[in-house]
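Dear colleague,

Thank you for sharing your sequence with our group. We've completed the structure prediction you requested, and as agreed, I am returning the results in plain text so they can be pasted directly into your records. Please verify that the sequence below matches your submission; if there's any discrepancy, let me know and we will rerun it promptly.
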Amino acid sequence: MRKYNYRRLIFLVLFAVVLAVILRSTIFASYIVDGESMEPTLYDGNLLMVNKVVYDLKDVDRFDVIVFHANEEEDYVKRVIGLPGDEIEYKNDRLYVNGEFVKEDFLDAYVQASDSRPFTDNFTLKDTIGEQKVPEERLFVMGDNRGDSLDSRSFGFISLEQLVGKVDVKYWPLSQAKLSFGN
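Please find the predicted structure tokens below.
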């Protein structure tokens, strides 16, 4: 009888390991933040858990923090600012989507600390990218550190096919751990 309990325990442990490997490779991915483009939300060296299947179940929301394939070698982490069909404009450090002001609470401390200079330079999609609206199946993304971010203002829209997933957990360092970003 004692032998049976050990076999059952070994089976349970092996099952748990296999399940963890499957979940890790298909549902979640770990990333390390490299650079300062998402400060003050994410800092260089932060470890992130990215949900790879969330956008199979729901649409991308404005202000989601996402990871996407920037090219064949690199993945970037940025914040979704513009969704398909949106007209985007920044004027006097204020975001306007389709002509309506949209508050960016996550930037409040940074904008106030930027003294008299604008934190986000004025721009429109038309002036920056040459498009009036975000095209279908595309997103306009920006880093939270607006003065030091390579984002859609430089490389244009990203396609939904480039998405890896949504940043759901920042788990290192523990002093900065958070369970959810965005909405």
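Summary note from our side: The longest strand covers residues 163-172.

Kind regards,
the structure core
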